[in-house]
Amino acid sequence: RTRIFSGVQPTGHLTLGNYLGAMRRWAEEDQHRAEALFCVVDLHALTVEHDPARVRRLSRQAATLLLAVGLDPELCTVFVQSQVDEHLRLSYLMECTASDGEMRRMIQYKEKAAREQARGGSVRLSLLSYPALMAADILAYGTHEVPVGEDQAQHVELTRDLAVRFNQRYGATFVVPKATHPAVAARVMDLQEPTSKMGKSHVRTAGTVYLLDEPEVVRKKVMRAVTDPGSDVVYERGERPGVANLLDVLAACSGGDPERLAEGYSSYGALKKDTAEAVVEMLRPVRGRHAELAAEPAYVDEVLRAGAERARGLARPRVDAAFRAMGLLG
Ligand code: TYM
């Protein structure tokens, strides 16, 4: 059976980008067609300056949101990374497989390192080795497919390289995975700065729609989205990034095609209004289920406990085999 793994970092509140780029497909498609595991990757959240209490709170909230968007623990495995030791064990082997140079080439590393330095902080060593841990997350489970937004493509490519290299040097141990991306909205852009990705850890929040934003807040953010000079609605990602982003979001919410949708609009105002309503309606049930689940922390804990146990059982034999293959007495 096809195996699927993906994850989300609890470094901030989850966003519309996380939902459209990744989580929605996990719930609507992936969990139904494969043996699928979805993980709150809390170890990754320690790679940048962090507040322990906040990370703990956000991890819980992310896990609750995974269930709220429709992941069903009867169909898939939902768990928290730090509760399964295999990720850390395999991560070290991946560090011994990767080179310093290939880690330094990662776009996310360059961007985040620059951001940490601009804040006057130092860059944690784990930020550089992050892709080794991510590769471990994926490879531990014999994963075939990794459903992610476009921004993670480079990390999954590196994971493939590491799997191939490991298999060649030490014997066939890992499945070589591939990334899959949604057809539309694989890269949702910031509403205030449509040339950069909508991200959960941006300091300015006006351009980011969070999954738990109140409907009024969502409306305001979308209505104030930066559009482009001109006034006719056309789908041009290069020339008209702001309008193209709204069309992508509207298409993703309503199931249409962005270029076709553009033909139906003659003003930015109408496009924004429809996009805002589509997002509000899409998020309404998510907010509702989140509120219900947040009132049942014992249920969420039990899902995570059972998920971790199942994940451990799936990962353990392969990670043990990798230890032995690399020459450890393990
Ligand atoms: P993270 O936490 O940044 O994002 C979680 C998922 O959401 C997608 N995403 C987006 N998609 C479209 N538009 C956006 N603006 C947008 N922002 C985020 C991401 O592509 C991702 O699929 N390194 C990963 C977490 C991770 C992981 C893994 C993923 C760790 N180990 C193993 C897959 C497999 C990350 O930082 O995602």
Main attributes of the structure:
330 residues; mainly alpha; Tyrosyl-Transfer RNA Synthetase; two-stranded parallel ribbon; binds tryptophanyl-5'AMP; Tryptophan--tRNA ligase; EC 6.1.1.2; ATP binding
Draw up the topology in text.
Blueprint: E1 3-8, H1 16-33, E2 35-40, H2 52-68, E3 77-80, H3 86-95, H4 100-104, H5 107-118, H6 125-139, E4 145-147, H7 153-170, E5 178-180, H8 215-223, H9 241-254, H10 258-263, H11 268-294, H12 297-325
Parallel strand pairs: 1-2, 2-3, 4-5
Helix pairs in contact: 2-11, 3-6, 3-12, 6-7, 8-11, 9-11
The structure holds tryptophanyl-5'AMP.
The site of tryptophanyl-5'AMP (TYM) has 26 residues, from strand 1, helix 1 and helix 6.
